[in-house]
Write a structure and sequence with these properties.
With 100 residues, this protein is mainly alpha-helical. It has a domain at 56-100. 62% of the residues lie in helices and 4% in strands. The chain has helices at residues 24-31, 37-73, 79-87, 91-98, and strands spanning 9-10, 15-16. The chain has a two-stranded antiparallel sheet with strand order 1-2. Helix 2 packs antiparallel against helix 3. The longest helix has 37 residues, at 37-73. The chain is elongated, with a radius of gyration of 23 Å.
Length: 100
């Protein structure tokens, strides 16, 4: 019986190998790093995720609010204006439009 083909990475640790396309200057920078290319990329991804966490949380909250607004009042007058106010983060305008 033939053994199933194993993929790259360390699946038992949650590590899955995938391809990443980088420019030559990126590969040059990675070669200069004290750790492996994978470790440097993981560190960069973690830093970017941490830096964008507040904006990402705000985007998710805005998307959820839009979904709720759409389900509750998508056919009501003023919905379009209220949703515009939500997406430009004009809280005063949004509050005045959904007050009723």
């Amino acid at each position: 019986m033939r053994e199933p083909k194993r993929g790259r990475g360390r699946p038992h640790q949650g590590v899955v190998s995938r391809e990443v396309g980088l420019l030559p200057r990126h590969w040059d920078w990675l070669k200069q790093q004290p750790r492996s290319s994978s470790a440097a990329l993981r560190r960069l991804v973690d830093l970017a995720a941490k830096a964008s966490a507040p904006a990402e949380a705000a985007r998710l909250a805005r998307d959820r609010a839009c979904g709720l607004m759409s389900r509750l009042g998508g056919d009501l007058p003023g919905f379009e204006e209220a949703s515009r106010a939500l997406f430009v983060d004009d809280r005063a305008d949004l509050k005045s439009r959904i007050g009723d």
